[in-house]
Write a structure and sequence with these properties.
Largest sheet: 2 strands, antiparallel
Distance between the termini: 32 Å
Radius of gyration: 15 Å
Strand content: under 5%
Length: about 150
């Protein structure tokens, strides 16, 4: 089975965007992506979608499952020689949520709908929760379904 969402391409793009965002705040960082872990993420996404019977699920469902597995398997790390003026350990959580939003915005919305986005306060709370609390693929899936709903 294969999903029709280029989450890997979005992962690499979002990681590059995150580097630029950190640079705008005075940080000189390199985000490294472990390709073997990315492949494992893909395998787990496929298994979860197949197991849960959401082969034909919408992009919000795919986004939730993708966020769960990126966050769980942690394929990203900040190069140790990077210069951060602040302590930041949640790169996998940050990038995974941004990938989920990118999936929704690229595949779920047509030109006439508003884009899914999260304000900074909610994003910070969400990242902390993803980092330190238990989450399931289903909880992330439901979160993106709510973000992507029209009402």
């Amino acid at each position: 089975m294969s999903i029709n969402v280029d989450w890997k391409g979005l992962l690499y793009r979002v990681a590059e965007d995150a580097e630029r965002q950190f640079a705008s705040r005075g940080a000189k960082i390199t985000i490294c992506i472990q390709r073997a872990v990315v492949e494992d993420v893909g395998l787990q996404i496929e298994r979860t979608i197949e197991r849960d019977g959401i082969e034909h699920g919408n992009a919000a469902k795919i986004a939730g499952v993708t966020v769960f597995w990126i966050r769980k398997l942690k394929p990203l790390y900040i190069e140790p020689t990077s210069e951060l003026p602040f302590d930041f350990t949640m790169i996998n959580e940050l990038v995974s949520v941004q990938v989920g939003l990118a999936i929704c915005n690229k595949y779920f919305f047509d030109a006439g709908r508003k884009k899914a986005k999260v304000n900074d306060r909610v994003l910070k709370d969400w990242l902390i929760s993803l980092r330190y609390n238990s989450h399931s693929p289903h909880s992330s899936l439901i979160t993106f379904e709510m973000l992507a709903s029209e009402k």
